[in-house]
Design brief:
Strand order of the largest sheet: 1-2-9-4-7
Radius of gyration: 25 Å
Structural class: alpha+beta
Shape: elongated
């Protein structure tokens, strides 16, 4: 198979007028574009995202070839087509239409599939759907399209939640999952825990989210949280706090940095935050620890 194109490359192969787009909004693993097309006959290379095509205005006979098979339907507003990732396709229509595209990344689909099945996923395929009606799909893709234009408060988080909802529904109704030949995931392996520790230690001074920790291991949040607690006996939040305290103790013992600098380097909001956490968990304070060690 040749190289995959991105959603941003699509106008090269399917020329049309872009009416709205999520480009530059900082969305993660989901994208949107609305196009106005004239009649076209286009062969499209395999794309690196899963795509939902929502028909908005205009209707047209639509011919499409996927997996070597041609399908013909009459596509109209309120209907949608699906195109799976990494599959070349050929489309032919004759009338002017306005459509919105919703793009879901392979990383998102892999994480959601692993979460809902608790198994290691090898491959995901959307069914060959050229024309369908489904109010759940319509409502979600329309909400994503609206957010691209409104750019409301918390838009990235809002769209991420919508994309997960859409992915789960697609898995229920319109997708097949191929699993790796292994048993369901158990506790995290020592190699994975080492990788996670390296990531956390490298980002202690930053705000570390559970999503970032899960992504480091290629897992969804729910699956990661479940198996992380089974492995360590603590929550991801407690684990990160422990690593921060361990680093703080090392730096305080070395005595080269002021306490407020130690707090900043270890990801605490300020010296008072470090003091509260250290008193609660270790029964001492940074100043007392430094004094005791130096004495």
């Amino acid at each position: 198979m040749g190289s995959l194109i991105s959603p941003q490359d699509l106008p090269t192969w399917v020329p049309g007028r872009v009416l709205s787009a999520s480009d530059g909004l900082g969305w993660k693993d989901v994208g949107h574009r609305t196009y106005l097309y004239t009649g076209l006959d286009v062969a499209i290379p395999p794309i690196d995202h899963f795509m939902v095509v929502r028909y908005r205005t205009g209707q047209t006979p639509m011919d499409r070839r996927v997996e070597g098979r041609w399908t013909r339907r009459q596509c109209a507003p309120g209907e949608f087509s699906l195109l799976t990732r990494s599959e070349p396709s050929h489309w032919h229509w004759t009338e002017c239409i306005e459509v919105s595209h919703t793009y879901l990344s392979d990383a998102l689909m892999q994480r959601v599939a692993a979460d809902i099945t608790e198994r290691a996923v090898a491959d995901i395929r959307l069914h060959d759907v050229l024309q369908a009606r489904d109010p759940v799909v319509m409502n979600v893709v329309d909400a994503i399209s609206a957010e691209a234009g409104q750019r409301g408060f918390g838009g990235g988080l809002y769209v991420e939640a919508l994309s997960i909802q859409l992915a789960v529904h697609l898995f229920r109704q319109y997708a097949s999952i191929q699993f790796r030949d292994e048993v369901p995931m158990g506790p995290l392996s020592p190699a994975r825990m080492r990788r996670l520790a390296e990531f956390v230690d490298a980002h202690l001074q930053d705000s570390i989210s559970i999503e970032q920790m899960a992504a480091t291991l290629g897992l969804g949040v729910w699956t990661f949280s479940k198996h992380f607690r089974a492995t360590t006996g603590v929550s991801p939040y407690d684990y990160v706090t422990r690593r921060r305290l361990e680093r703080a103790v090392q730096l305080l013992t070395a005595g080269e940095l002021a306490i407020k600098e130690v707090a900043a380097d270890c990801g605490f909001s300020d010296q008072a935050h470090l003091t509260r956490v250290m008193r609660a968990r270790l029964g001492t304070t940074p100043a007392r620890m430094r004094k005791d060690r130096s004495g």
